[in-house]
TrEMBL record:
Name of the protein in its database record: ABC transporter ATP-binding protein
Domain ABC transporter: 4-233
Molecular functions per Gene Ontology: ATP binding; ATP hydrolysis activity; branched-chain amino acid transmembrane transporter activity
Keywords associated with the record: Amino-acid transport, ATP-binding, Nucleotide-binding, Transport
Lineage: Bacteria, Bacillati, Bacillota, Bacilli, Bacillales
Length: 234
């Protein structure tokens, strides 16, 4: 089932025409990966879905319902969690306080989800009372993902979780996202092709505000020419 359908969206930031007709679909239960060089428009696409940089043309449908005219807080309440590139973590608060603030509905289900995600990221349990600003980059990333996960979100938009992390941390974060697949659908923006291709089902490649290539992840793994052409990697 198609959970999210982005249909020919165009987004301007000030006078700049950033997204120039972006279309793609996210299937329920999948990890869909959005690749592309720096400045291709990946972050803007996630921000348009969340209504932070609203699209001025085209449509965005979540579970067959239009959300492109909906304010951000209502989009998030419909069940879309967003983990921005800058992580959205409050550095002056402890890990525990950050988690508490993130929870929309403090019920047993949320507690169950919190328990599950703390098993997945035991570092967060260890540093529960520590100020988040003191965590390592990878731990901050884990906290950001955990904050989005504790709510009953059907879709998580995760922006470049590997950015600035040591390889071992990248692997940990990717493995955690893969484990989340059994519980939620993920739209992942990632530059680390090797890692993302291990966990992704489908891919879309963006360039200059457009989707220029898409398919099953296995096809891209087998297609060195496309990887070279669109991503500049062998
Ligand atoms: N506030 C802004 N004002 C003007 N231009 C912007 C603004 N934010 C983004 N852009 C431009 O929009 C384009 C797309 O940026 P975006 O952040 O969506 O790319 P990206 O694919 O996520 O890149 P990266 O991988 O570097 O994060 C870039 O050319 C960028 O310079």
């Amino acid at each position: 089932m198609t959970l999210l359908k982005v249909d020919a969206i165009e987004t301007f930031i000030e006078q700049y025409h950033i997204l120039q007709g972006v279309s793609f679909e996210v299937t329920e239960g999948d990890i869909t990966v959005l690749f592309g060089r720096n400045g291709a428009g990946k972050t803007t696409t996630l921000r348009s879905i969340m209504g932070l940089n609203p699209a001025s043309k085209g449509q965005i449908l979540f579970k067959d319902e239009r959300i492109d005219q909906t304010p951000t807080h209502l989009i998030s309440r419909k069940g879309i969690g967003y983990v921005p590139e800058d992580q959205g973590v409050f550095f002056d608060l402890t890990v525990g306080e950050n988690m508490k603030l993130a929870i929309r509905k403090n019920d047993s289900e949320a507690m169950g989800r919190q328990e599950w995600v703390l098993e997945l990221f035991p570092d967060l349990k260890t540093f529960w009372y520590r100020k988040s600003g003191l965590l390592s980059g990878g731990q901050k990333q884990m906290l950001a993902i955990a904050r989005a996960y504790v709510n009953d979100n059907e879709l998580l938009l995760i922006d470049e979780p590997s950015k600035g992390l040591a390889p071992i941390m990248v692997e940990k974060v990717m493995q955690a996202i893969e484990q989340m697949k059994s519980k939620t659908t993920v739209l992942l923006v990632e530059q680390n092709f090797f890692m993302a291709s291990m966990i992704g089902n489908r891919f879309y490649i963006m360039d200059e505000g457009r989707i220029v290539h898409h398919g099953q992840m296995q096809e891209l793994k087998d297609d060195q020419e496309s990887r070279q052409k669109y991503l500049g990697i062998a």
